[in-house]
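Dear H.,

Thanks for agreeing to be a second pair of eyes. The structure we're designing against is below in token form, covering all 415 positions.
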């Protein structure tokens, strides 16, 4: 009798669970978009390769553009924020390396706290360093996590957005225990004073260097590593690795609706598997390299990135970026805030896919930083050893390169 009652209870729970899922709105989109648009770019200005310039670039890692068209470049190597006018004139450094007010020691990313304030998260001081658009220091704000991870040093934030009074950030907790270090990746909502108020997800990342490393691509997929903050606190995250699925949550983690699109899975060839494997690289940092094994997925990941601009959701897929020698074609799928596909937009860019970094500032401007990879290698003393795929690679920097920032204006190709 108990067995029958338990079975009925199980069926009831399954029914209620399915009913709850059925009540979540589903926005279903076709494979074919309503509109195709092809975009071309025109160079507006280029800086960084003139010996008479009043500045020198190290490694540019992040870019902002304010409402007046001024462009700000964050240099991770020099710990400096360069400001340029809309026509490319160097105006000033609005922050430099140092330990005083408004100065930086370990910043990897920045954003607009509001229209008149830039906030850089400084890894070494574990706080936001804020200054106005002219470089006048403002407050410093230290994020406060909900959970104190024993042996950790506080959250290191690598991406953050404030919109409509909502504050979302992702990053890592670095935890040191018993002589070993590990990383815990997270996505969280914060209040206006950077106190964590809700944690969407925490997932262990990184590897134990004292043991053989086993890379498992499917198991290590973190849906919360690709996210976007939309209007009124709506959070978009990737629903699954293989499949065009997005979950829309509120800032307390409640599922509001799902967005999906009919999309073919692309099975990898053995060569593509090897290429995916070679995207994993492990720096020795003076330590002995443990043995490394790989379990790679048979399929490419579907969604690769999310971006929000002017009340629209922009999505790229794993097959959206067509990289050729000295040029890149980017394809963005653009949705309204609810999740209805509006158009597919292709951008043709003059960029080296192996060296350059592309920063989409909005739908009108794109900034390409040339030779970013070489600049990063130079900052690592030019020659170092990494584990690439299943073999080691000695990386030596070529001499003939220069780092430039190139701003492009976007326009539609007229047919």
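And this is the sequence the design step returned. I haven't edited it by hand at all.
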């Amino acid at each position: 009798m108990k067995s029958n009652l338990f079975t009925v209870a199980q069926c009831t729970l399954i029914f209620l669970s399915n009913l709850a899922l059925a009540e979540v709105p589903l926005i279903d989109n076709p494979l074919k978009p309503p509109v195709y648009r092809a975009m071309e770019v025109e160079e507006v200005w280029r800086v960084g390769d003139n010996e008479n310039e009043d500045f020198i670039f190290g490694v540019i890692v992040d870019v902002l553009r304010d409402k007046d068209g001024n462009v700000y470049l964050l240099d991770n190597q020099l710990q400096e924020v360069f400001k340029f006018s809309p026509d490319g004139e160097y105006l000033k450094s609005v922050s430099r390396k140092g330990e005083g007010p408004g100065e930086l020691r370990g910043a990897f990313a920045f954003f607009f706290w509001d229209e008149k304030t830039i906030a850089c998260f400084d890894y070494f001081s574990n706080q936001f360093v804020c200054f106005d658009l002219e470089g006048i220091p403002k407050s410093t704000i230290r994020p406060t996590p909900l959970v104190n991870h024993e042996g950790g040093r506080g959250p290191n934030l690598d991406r953050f957005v404030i919109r409509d009074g909502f504050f979302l950030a992702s990053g890592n907790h670095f935890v040191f225990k018993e002589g070993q270090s590990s990383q815990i990746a997270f996505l969280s909502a914060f209040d206006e004073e950077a106190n964590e108020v809700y944690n969407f997800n925490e997932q262990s990342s990184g590897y134990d260097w004292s043991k053989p490393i086993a890379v498992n691509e499917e198991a290590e997929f973190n849906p919360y590593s690709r996210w976007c903050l939309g209007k009124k606190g709506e959070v978009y995250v990737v629903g699954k690795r293989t499949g065009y699925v997005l979950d829309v949550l509120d800032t307390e983690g409640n599922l509001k609706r799902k967005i999906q699109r009919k999309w073919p899975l692309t099975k990898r060839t053995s060569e593509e598997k090897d290429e995916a494997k070679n995207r994993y690289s492990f720096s020795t940092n003076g330590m002995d390299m443990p043995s490394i094994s790989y379990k790679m997925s048979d399929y490419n990941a579907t969604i690769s990135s999310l971006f929000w601009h002017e009340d629209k959701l922009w999505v790229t897929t794993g097959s959206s970026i067509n990289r050729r020698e000295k040029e890149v074609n980017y394809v963005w799928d653009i949705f309204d805030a609810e999740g209805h596909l509006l158009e597919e937009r292709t951008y043709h860019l003059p960029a080296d896919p192996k060296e350059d970094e592309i920063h989409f500032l909005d739908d009108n401007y794109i900034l390409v930083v040339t030779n970013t990879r070489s600049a990063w290698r130079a900052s690592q003393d030019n020659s170092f050893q990494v584990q690439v795929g299943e073999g080691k690679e000695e990386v030596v920097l070529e001499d003939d390169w220069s780092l430039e920032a190139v701003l492009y204006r976007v326009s539609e190709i007229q047919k």
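Two observations from my side: The first strand starts at residue 26 and ends at 29. The chain has a mean pLDDT of 86.

Warmly,
E.
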